[in-house]
Amino acid sequence: MIRRLPAMIIIVAGLFFSSARAQNFVAQHGALKVQGNKIVDAQGQTVTLRGMALYWSQWKPAFYNADCIRWLRDDWKCTVVRATMAVTDGGYLTDPVAEMKKITTVVQAAIDLGIYVIVDFHETKNGNDHLAASKKFFGDLSLQFGKAPNLIYETWNEPDNTMIWATIIKPYHEAVIPVIRANSDNIILCGTRNWDQAVDEASKNPITSSPNIAYTLHFYAADHKDPVRAVATAALNNGIALMVTEGGLSKASGDSTIDTAEGRRWADYMDKNGIAWTNWSLADLPETSGALKVGASPTGGWTEAEMHPSGVWVRNRLRSVAAAVSINGDFRIMGPGKPARYPIGPMTLESRRDASGRLTLTGNDGLASRNAYRENRARTARGRVDPRIWFLPE
Questions:
Q1: Catalytic choice (99, 123, 154, 158)
Q2: Are the CB atoms for 354 and 360 separated by under 8 Å?
Q3: CB 168 within 8 A of CB 159
Q4: Quick one: which H or E segment has residue 213?
Q5: Which residues lie below 8 Å from residue 18, measured CB to CB, with a gap of 6+?
Q6: CA Rg value for the chain
Q7: Which phi-psi region, left, alpha or beta, contains residue 269 (left: φ > 0; alpha: ψ -120 to 50)?
Q8: Which stretches of the chain drop beneath a pLDDT of 70?
Q9: What predicted TM-score, i.e. pTM, was given to this entire model?
Q10: Is the Cβ–Cβ distance between 360 and 384 less than 8 Å?
Q11: What are the angstrom distances between the C-alpha of 116 and each of 12, 51, 61, 181?
């Protein structure tokens, strides 16, 4: 805990504070890009997106609407959603016009609401068998929305364990990427072998034909534990960026028991490493991985009684992160200041001067708890304080 000292500096956060979430999240962060093994925003700051993945578009189409996306942003505090466009099983190959309409509805809603949206070509077989359809889909999508910073492209959902990275999966991605790049420089997510878990293989033979390439990692907490995180860490250490576009609390089957303790370990791991994630899945289903119980409205307004335990847990996690005061980024210093370290409970803030003399402040875990914020607030001018202001000893 910081003791109040006579000499004080006032630090005003530039971008990352809790009240800003009521504003346009994309307007704050702009076009995202891959920088080493991190996803960073237009200011070069690491940004960790968190949100929900919609269920297969052909089986739960009612949830592909703007009211649903608005509720996820406002109540669940999502900064990203994943639109999961089915390819087979009555999906895009059967009715491309209907499936494209669902996707564009969600993309436009995300743009209007100022959050990011991952569009997933939900391929569950050999993507090369449907390469022409993939090129057509991503060509049309990027032509329509390619200038919007909100959009993230996911080109092949889950190559299974029979697919080979070097000869099947990577060439597929390399064939689709130029189609997107003709219209958009946004991040492209590339699926990896073994249902998006062999990310270490991709890290040893990455795609180099285009910038802004990241790789997808999937987990289901009741099945996938430390060994999968070890593979992810190896991939990060090899220099590639990851996004978890499907993370669940159940078994990989989507059903059976949920493991919230392991879910917490995964969520902490992703936060620590700046890995964006979307939980599978936002739908009313009889299975435990579904966030909502059967019969829940597709337009939002859900009470906890209408959620499965997994939905309650994920919503609480999303809301708790949103309630935290982020202190990772660029700060303006009001008054005197010098490079120093400031312990705040379990974390430390460190101020530094860059080459131009500007003083910046970062935290070793990027977040300060609501309690820490309240402690600071109690020391300010009788509680009258902008939530962006931190009072720290000089």
A1: 158
A2: yes
A3: yes
A4: strand 213-220
A5: 322, 323, 324, 325, 326, 373, 387
A6: 21
A7: alpha
A8: 1-23, 323-394
A9: 0.81
A10: no
A11: 26, 9, 20, 18
Which amino acid is located at 58 in the chain? Answer: Q
Can you tell me the distance from the alpha carbon of 224 to that of 226, in angstroms, rounded to the nearest whole number? 7
Please indicate whether residue 350 is annotated as part of the active site: no
Q: 317-353: per-residue pLDDT in tens?
A: 998 887 553 443 333 333 334 444 444 444 444 545 5
Q: What does the alpha-carbon distance between residue 145 and residue 140 come to, in Å, rounded to a whole number?
A: 9
From 99, 154, 201, 246, the catalytic residue: 246
**pLDDT at position 23:** 56
What domains lie within the chain, and their CATH numbers?
8-16+327-393 (no CATH), 29-324 (3.20.20.80)
Pair of tokens at residue 176? 């689709």
Q: Is the peptide bond before 351 cis (omega within 30 degrees of 0)?
A: no
Sign, CA dihedral 304-308-309-312, equals negative
Q: In 3D, which of 229, 228, 170, 181 has the Cα closest to residue 204?
A: 170
Tokens encoding 149:
């910073």
**At residue 65, what is the residue type?**
N
Q: Which residue has tokens 């902490």?
A: 268
**H helices within the chain, ranges in order?**
25-29, 66-74, 96-113, 131-145, 170-181, 193-196, 199-204, 226-237, 260-273, 309-323, 370-378
For residue 213, CA distances in Å to 65, 209, 216, 247 come to 29, 9, 10, 20
Tokens 């971008």 belong to residue = 15
Whether residue 304 lies in the annotated active site: no
Cβ 154 vs Cβ 116: under 8 Å = no
CA separation for the pair 165, 31 (Å, rounded): 29
Long-range contacts formed by 22-25: CB under 8 A, 24+ apart: 23/114, 24/114, 25/79, 25/114, 25/115, 25/116
